[in-house]
Amino acid sequence: MEVAPLANPPVCRIMDYGKFKFDAAQRAKESRRKTSNVGIKEMKYRPKIGPGDFDTKTRQVLKFLSDGHKVKVTVMFRGREVIHPDLGRRILERITEQIDGVAKIETEGRLDGRNMVMVLAPDKRAKQSSDARQLTEERHRVISNGNAPGGTVTTGGVGSASPGMTVPGPGEAVPDNGQAGLEMHVQVETQP
């Protein structure tokens, strides 16, 4: 097999052709496996949908979006319902309120024959920001409970906490000073 045909003299390598074909097939298979297969899922609603059915279908839409799929939301009109497209728009607005922060609207709701269609796509940035928001809320909850991970208290709180007091880190024993059960609201600076 030629390795560098443009070199002077050309460079060739003697190899097992069967092994070469097998390795090429394995590399192709591996690259196909790493690609993500984003499908489009569809969820159908009706203008007179009940609250329980609406919640169930919307939960399913959220599941599809969290799995990385696009979702086509269809509101189907029957008979004379088609002369009231505002009912379909209300359904689509309720869906967008519930999926806010998880997905972005790729195609706004528009009437297509007897159906009103809207396409939603998962929003990676919104998911990252919501994950970051949950993390900061969790840290705030940990800090406000007095279980801060190793640092120095910068503002005093209720009880015997004072500025400059050292807070034990993870795995360190908390000294019992007889004031268990006091709620402390402190801000902690972590030490490098």
Describe the structure.
The protein has 192 residues and is of the alpha+beta class. It has a domain of 87 residues: Translation initiation factor 3 (IF-3), C-terminal domain (Translation Initiation Factor IF3). The protein contains 4 helices and 9 strands, in the order ββαβαβαββαβββ. The longest helix has 21 residues. It starts with a strand and ends with a strand.
Unreliable segments (pLDDT under 50, ≥5 consecutive)?
151-161, 180-186
CATH topology label of one domain: Translation Initiation Factor IF3
Gyration radius, in Å: 30 Å
Strand count: 9
- Taken from the alpha-carbon principal axes, the silhouette is elongated
Instruction: Determine the strand fraction and express it as a percent band.
Output: 15-25%
What tags apply to this protein structure?
192 residues, alpha+beta, Translation Initiation Factor IF3, 3-stranded antiparallel β-sheet, elongated
Secondary structure blueprint with pairings:
Elements: E1 2-4, E2 11-12, H1 17-34, E3 40-45, H2 51-66, E4 70-76, H3 85-98, E5 103-112, E6 115-122, H4 124-144, E7 151-153, E8 166-167, E9 188-190
